[in-house]
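Below is how a single chain appears once it has passed through the pipeline. First comes the sequence as given, then the structure the pipeline wrote out for it. We keep one example in the README because the format questions we get most often are answered faster by looking than by reading.
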Amino acid sequence: MVDLFIPFEKVNNTLKEILLNYGFSRERAERCASLFAKADLDGVRSHGVNRFFLFLDFIKKGLVNPDKEPLALSQLGMFERWNGQQGVGNLNAEFAMNRAIELSKEFGISCVTLQNTNHWMRGGNFGWQAVEAGCIGICFTNTNPNMPAWGGSEPKVGNNPLVIAIPRKSGPVVLDMAFTQFAYGKLSISKAKGEQMAYEAGFDDKGNLTKDPGTVINNHLGLPIGLWKGSGLSLVLDLLASVLSGGNATHDIGKSGFETAVSQVFLCFDPTKLELTDWIETKADALIEDLKNSSTFGDKSVRYPGENTIETRNRNLKNGVPISEKLWVELQNELKNAKI
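Resulting structure:
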């Protein structure tokens, strides 16, 4: 696939203009488009514009309601529960993390949960949202069943992405990971390119490990990270998300046949309110310095989570955001249809 390099604002505006034809107010279209475009800007192409047409399809099917906003269910000091009303997943998540930030500024620690929401697309957006507000942010979501329990031969567990973000002046540490060895968005990109994965990505129908992305996409038997450990941790996150939000667990989500009405949790810690500012920078810098001084095999180097994001962002702002030519043509056709 050939990539085009499109100015960020042009990508953003294209998505926004398309969304205006799908029942979005201008303000919500701008925010939603920005969250999609920022994923590609930061180099997370698997969860940005590549997901946009699937998102539009969910709107057409009535699975995502563009005009619905979170509805408060319970507000008990530092803990709040909200009903996402099957609204726009990335906008609901942005709202929830913003509430978590606000509450942490008041209480030091906060927990905001969402039930009945939709796919948040790039979860890392909400980790960056926290660190840009000077806060430590932790958030996770459950998904449809797309991974076997360890020893199982059918998808029973979600890959339940987890984000942990820690502010640091020299560069925030932002971990954004799913509990399958490869996120399904990345598998889809490799499948479209006709490429095999670098490591085993899941199981085939006979229980053998495979690097073929198409096989894993078709049977939803992604390989858990850390094998049985990843499977167990993913199950616990699913349980926490459903208990704390009062919403669906992965097995409930799987009954609909679509990944919708998921549950999410957003935790936030304000270092200033918690009186951590005297040492948070020195602790983080010392840890990163020790990591970067690690011996390596050959010419490799070690990186901390999120290390290259700012560099990638600045490069793409300067040179343009890489978008596949085929996808860009499809977006332009959609834009033309929206104006008719």
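Residues 186-223 form a domain with the Wheat Germ Agglutinin (Isolectin 2); domain 1 fold (CATH 3.30.60.50).

See the next section for the split statistics.
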